Amino acid sequence: MASVLRREHNNKVLGMSSEMTLLSGEQVNNLAITVALPDAPKREKWGKGVEFMLSCIAYSVGFGNIWKFPYTALENGGGAFLIPYLVVLFLIGRPIYYLEMVMGQFCSRGCVKIYDLAPIMRGVGVGQSVAMFVVMTYYTPVLAITLRYLFASFSWELPWSKCDPSWPHCIDSVKSDFQNSSKADLRNMNVSAELFFTNTVMHRGSLEQGIGIPDLKLVLCLLASWLIIAIILIKGIRSTGKASYFLALFPYVIISILFVHSCSLKGAWNGISFFLTPKWESLFTAKVWMEAVTQCFFSLSICFGGIIAYSSFNNFSNNVYRDAMIISWLDTFTSIIIGCIVFGVLGNLAYVTNKDNIQDVVREGSGLAFMAYPDAIAKFEYLPQLFSVLFFLMLFIVGIGSNLGVLTSIITAVRDFCPKVSNWKVACTICVIGFSLSTVYVAPGGLDLLDVFDLYGAKYVTLTFALFELITFGWIYGVDQICRDIHFMLNISTSMFWRICWALVTPIVVAVILLGCFISHKPVNVPVEYNVIGWCVYALAAIQLPLWALYAIYRQQYGGFYRKLRNAFHPTTTWGPENEVTREMYNFANEKYRDQQQSSEDDSSNCGTLVYRKIFK
Fold first, then answer.
1. Residue 24: its pLDDT value, please?
2. pLDDT above 50 for 580
3. SS3 labels along 403-445
4. 60-64, 78-82, 260-264, 401-405: which has the highest mean pLDDT?
5. Is it the case that residue 190 has pLDDT exceeding 80?
6. pLDDT at 15
7. What is the mean predicted confidence (pLDDT) over 579-590?
């Protein structure tokens, strides 16, 4: 009976193949669903197309937009940084975002299984998963600190607004009159908001004395954060899609309120002007462009695997081109608006503390969100608790959205290889492991350790495998093949802009930036053994590439070593659209194209001909 069904199925495919080039992607998708075999595997899909876009917005708009983008812009020339950032977004950010969406949707595979297109490069996906795992362990502790501040914001009086008697050299953050204080008097003093963060919340200590014991309140906040994430993930992608309506849209309500209030503060326009006014001499330094590329990667969350994972749950004919354009520009717009909010508040802080230079009140990373901003809020004349709740609620919500993307990427990678394991089992296991490992970051030395893993395990690993991902997609698989896949899936032609960016501009720029990062590398200011641990994490990720390459060669069934090596660069027999009927139609189209190429090309061995064909045909 099974063989009869198979023969009938194949006859249907052969009958349709001659006409498949006349069908649009949506028609192919619907037709494939109609005649698919009863036992064809089904991948979970988004409930609605808008849920995919909202989930990507929630994933991309995160902590990096709120504290990293404003500080990076400040350090690199204010408004002059926006120019290279927008250029980088146009030439690198958007092309990679669109490319990852296309590839994920086309094959319905996560960031590891997608390398069925070139099994010898599967280590790229595994290495990216290592980076995501590292990010997962330190992202949620920042969420826990945010939750700790959110709860504290409901106090009758903000607990960081006044000094504790045990804090030496302390100035009340609520104090706003420094007109009669000299700079010498203020030089050795610390505001209560800073001491509240270092002494009460984090109990900061040096790694030279060890990591220390985690703070109980932060551990409980960490547990609550992981429980929220687990509850959303436990039912799979559909529950994530439903949560995205709130996680993606509600923060913009808070952002609008904070933006209006920030612009109304005294001295706010000085801060905003400082943020937006170009320093043109900075535009011609390599550091500005390097920072712009790095910020683009971490702001859009590209080359981490999350975009590929989310796209893999799309319907085959979803218009990912539209989604990629909307999300990438919205992310940039959000970064600029939040920059105006933050620097409006910092401008007010500089005004009330009688400081001429905005840089004197800015702290990097966690200091901006948990020291400078709370210090400024404590000085608000009206309802400081309300604006504190709004700010940290916004920070918590965008953090949840970003964490969901990180966890979904890891869960998808696991379930692609173990599809029979229930989603809730994988989600719960990863959340338990994540909670256990992330407790170390809420210890007194945890934030210093976070800086180590952020540099070696996230930044360096991501840029390294971003380069290999682009080489794999653009040259091993081929830009020409990607463009044919897009036409088969969406029935649209790919312009020369995307072809040149995918094949040349983007990989070359990423290679230059990666090389520049290694040349200008400075160890994290911690004991040397922690930097060694950081390099070990990087090595653990990097070694996945040769290990999985050797495994892919070993798994090839026919021929000697050279033939196995060559075959490992070619897609597996199951590569293509998820649906079996659509995949057979796709394979037929590829065979027809190859036959045409063989009959029309006189010299395919010429290097120039191969490059021309890879990019322009």
1. 45
2. yes
3. HHHHHHHHHHHHHHHCCCCCHHHHHHHHHHHHHHHHHHHHCCC
4. 401-405
5. no
6. 44
7. 90
Tell which residue, 162, 130, 17, has the closest CA to residue 413: 130
Residue 592 burial by Cβ neighbours in a 10 Å radius (0-12, 13-18, 19+): middle
pLDDT at res. 349 = 78
DSSP state of 79: H
For residue 138, pLDDT beyond 50: yes
Residue pair 342/70 in contact (Cβ under 8 Å)? The answer is yes
191-196-197 Cα angle (round to 5): 105
More confident residue, 418 or 175: 418
Measure the CA–CA gap between 89 and 546, rounded to whole angstroms.
31
- How much is the pLDDT for 205? 83
Output Rg (C-alpha) for the chain, integer angstroms.
26
The first and second tokens of residue 566, run together, are 């060559």
Number of other residues whose CB lies within 10 A of the CB of residue 232 = 21
Counting beta carbons within 10 angstroms of the beta carbon of residue 72, is it exposed (0 to 12), middle (13 to 18) or buried (19 or more)?
buried
pLDDT in tens, 224-241: 999 999 999 998 898 999
Token output for 489: 């899936």
Tell whether the model's pLDDT for residue 22 goes beyond 70: no
Instruction: Say which DSSP state 493 is in.
Output: P
| Residue 83 CA: distances (Å) to CA of 217, 293, 354, 401, 510 | 43, 12, 31, 28, 18
CB 312 within 8 A of CB 109: yes
Tell me the C-alpha distance between 340 and 22, whole Å.
Answer: 50
Query: What does the pLDDT read at residue 605?
Result: 54
Highest mean pLDDT of the ranges 112-121, 157-166, 415-424: 112-121
Residue 88 in tokens: 């980088």
Query: Which of 87, 81, 69, 91 has its CA nearest to residue 283?
Result: 81
Predicted local distance difference test score (pLDDT) of residue 214: 92
Structure tokens at 304: 């981490």
Mean pLDDT in the chain?
84
Helix (H) or strand (E) holding 171: strand 170-171
Q: Which helix (H) or strand (E) holds 62?
A: none
Distance CA 192, CA 194 (A): 5
Instruction: Give backbone dihedrals phi and psi of 354, rounded to 5 degrees, phi first.
Output: 60, 45
pLDDT of residue 210: 84
Say how many C-beta atoms besides its own lie within 10 A of residue 396's C-beta. Answer: 21
> Measured in whole angstroms, how far is the alpha carbon of residue 390 from the centre of its chain?
24
Q: What is the pTM of this model?
A: 0.87
Taking the C-alpha atoms of residue 571 and residue 203, their distance in angstroms, rounded to an integer, is 53
Q: Work out the pLDDT band at 267, boundaries 50, 70, 90.
A: confident
572 Cβ contact partners less than 8 Å away, ≥ 6 residues apart: 116, 119
The total of other beta-carbon atoms located within 10 Å of residue 267's CB is: 19
H or E stretch at 170: strand 170-171
List the one residue out of 251, 273, 253, 305 whose CA is nearest residue 109: 305
Can you tell me the distance from the alpha carbon of 347 to that of 370, in angstroms, rounded to the nearest whole number? 17
Residues 6 or more apart whose CB falls under 8 angstroms from that of 420 comprise none
Interatomic CA distance for residues 28 and 134, integer angstroms: 40
Outline where 1-153 has alpha helix (H).
2-17, 25-35, 49-60, 63, 69-75, 79-88, 94-107, 122-152
Contact 390, 376 (CB under 8 A): no
